[in-house]
Amino acid sequence: MDIGSNFSNDGTENPTSNSNNPTPNSNNPTLASHNDSTSGTPSVRGKKDPAWAHVALRKEDNKNVYTCLYCALSYKGGGINRLKHHLAGISGNAVSCSKVPFDVRYQMQESLKSGRREHLSMCKQTWRNANEPNAPALSKLIPESSASKKKPPTMPVENYFASRTTPGSQPGIKSAFATKEAQHSAKMAIFEWAIINCIPFNALDCPFFQKAMDSIASIGPGFKGPNAYEFRVNLLNDWKKECQLLIESHRSKWKTYGCTLMADGWTDVRQRTLINFLVYSTHGIVFVKSVDAFDLVKDAKTLFSLFSEVIEWVGLKNIVHVVTDNAANYVACGKLIKEKYKSIYWSPCAAHCLNLTLKDIASMSHVLQLATKASKITVFVYNHMIFLSWLRKRKGWKEIVRPGATRFATTFITLHSIYMHKHDLQALITDKHFVNHKLSRTEAGIIVSAIILDNWFWNKCLEVVKIVSPLIKLLRIVDSDEKPSLPYVYEGMQRAKKAIKAVFTNKKDQYKPYTDIIQA
User: pLDDT tens digit string along 235-271?
Assistant: First the structure.
């Protein structure tokens, strides 16, 4: 028997290959395997085509009847190839099945493709053998006994699954054939898991989430996710090893290019002081350790001992620069570092310096007075919904930024937001909706009305906003992680000084208090 006789010209299995022998024949091993030896009924045991797992075979009027296990549609004749087209959703030989699972549909499509590839490969080999000089006959190359027993090569398991969804790539056939209902059902299952376990919604925007989905899809149905024990023991240990290898790769770069040691001290909502140590290099930023300094006296000597411990771990020859806050204790610690380690250069954090500059400006008496009046306006408006609802109905209305407990730039952002709402607030105070209301005659209502109608308040708000605007822009530049910002610091400070002088038309007695703060 020729190994390619079961395939038609297009590479698919020939549905009429057994039409000459409709009855069982014990001499033909292929036909004998289709029928049960005891009852004479058709059996699908021993068949290698993957479509047999989804098709029922029976006899009717001495003819084979193939029934789809999903939609119960039956076909007489045509062979398993016709049912394979039915399951794959390819029209022509059969009607497309509407109830077949998506992974089965994709598997049938890949099986048909592999059959075409095998047929083309055999045709090419036959042509090469026939055109070789003194080539033996094809029947001698492939004996009938061995050819009848030879199995066609099977496709690798991974070829039956769609490729991973990388950004910008085309969707795989399996996902493209998935209906909207199936996609919605899968998304609802993920949503249910996230809701029950209180997973933040923004966690789904993490690129590693899609990576996890791709890994699950590459394995296919039946994949069992890890349990809590695997997370706590096996996977956590493996992840720790990967992190250690990553740190070692960074340390090798430190020896070649050098690095910068950074210390970030902050206080949480429970007034606990934490100091984070990080190392920056051309390879990236690495978190080294975090120290709970709640019960420590954070003087220069204590900080110096903490820095010395980290410097020894990183390597004295690897560190070329140390960056800390600009507080007095950190400045003194920086001097001790330079005295002991001559090869290390210390400098204060540019973002912290700008924050302290804004803090000193916010502590000036007239700025404090403006901030207090702005706070009274926001408290009055947001405590009385009847006036806030009136403001929200105005065209182009945006919420007022209210003063927070945080330091530094918050005060100036609030003053700028209040100034942008000047016309809306003045329209409210002069409208009969406010004038005829009893709240307008209370002490708080009279004070807020006087502030909103005071031109001095608005002029000073505009003046302060113009003064700090260059400093806030520079703070956003140096506090971002997009690109190195140190080259912009000194030029930005000079521009800020020039902008402040321009606000006061170069009158030294008026701009000097601000430039002195910047210079300090």
Answer: 999 999 988 888 888 888 888 889 999 988 877 777 7
Q: What is the mean pLDDT of the chain?
A: 78
SS (H, E, C) 438-469: HHHHCHHHHHHHHHHCCHHHHHHHHHHHHHHH
Of 94-103, 116-125, 285-294, the one with minimum mean pLDDT is 116-125
Q: Could you give the CA distance from residue 468 to residue 471 in angstroms, rounded to a whole number? A: 5
Q: Answer yes or no: are the C-beta atoms of 138 and 126 closer than 8 Å.
A: yes
Q: Identify the pLDDT of residue 12.
A: 43
Residue 518 predicted with pLDDT over 70: yes
pLDDT bucket at 447, cuts 50 / 70 / 90: very high
Closest by CA to 250, choosing from 260, 265, 262, 238, is 260
- Comparing C-alpha atoms, which of 78, 95, 77, 76 is closest to residue 86? 95
Domain spanning 243-348, CATH class:
alpha beta
Report the alpha-carbon distance of residue 184 to residue 187 in Å, rounded: 5
Give domain limits for the chain. Answer: 29-149, 173-219, 243-348, 357-519
Instruction: With beta carbons less than 8 A apart as the criterion, state whether 465 and 419 touch.
Output: yes
- Among all chains, which residue has been given the structure tokens 């990080």? 278
Coil vs helix vs strand at 259 = strand
Q: Exposed/middle/buried for 354, CB within 10 Å: 0-12, 13-18, 19+?
A: buried
Instruction: Give every CB contact of residue 183 below 8 A, 6+ residues apart in sequence.
Output: none
Q: Which helix (H) or strand (E) holds 321?
A: strand 319-324
pTM (predicted TM-score): 0.52
CA distance linking residue 28 with residue 37, whole number of Å? 13
Q: Which two tokens stand for residue 224?
A: 């069992």
**Secondary structure (DSSP) of 37-101:** TTT--B--TT---GGGGGEEEEEETTEEEEEETTT--EEESSHHHHHHHHHHT-TTTSPPPSS--
Amino acid found at 271: Q
pLDDT digits (tens, 9 = 90+) for 278-336: 998 888 888 988 888 777 777 888 889 999 999 998 988 899 999 988 888 888 999 99
In terms of DSSP bridges, do strands 319-324 and 259-267 run parallel, antiparallel, or are they unpaired?
parallel
Statement: residue 417 has pLDDT above 80: yes
Amino acid sitting at position 277: F
Encode 197-240 in three state secondary structure: CCCCHHHHHCHHHHHHHHHHHHHCCCCCCCCHHHHHHHHHHHHH
What is d(CA 429, CA 322) in angstroms, rounded to the nearest whole number?
54
Residue 410 and residue 474 in contact, taking contact as beta carbons nearer than 8 Å: no
Please say if the pLDDT value at position 353 is more than 80. Answer: yes
Residue 280's φ and ψ, nearest 5 degrees, are -110, 135
Between the CA of residue 212 and those of 163, 174, 208, 231, what are the distances in Å? 13, 18, 6, 15
Supply 208's token pair. 């590693």
Q: Concatenated DSSP letters for 369-391?
A: HHHHHHHHHHHHHHH-HHHHHHH
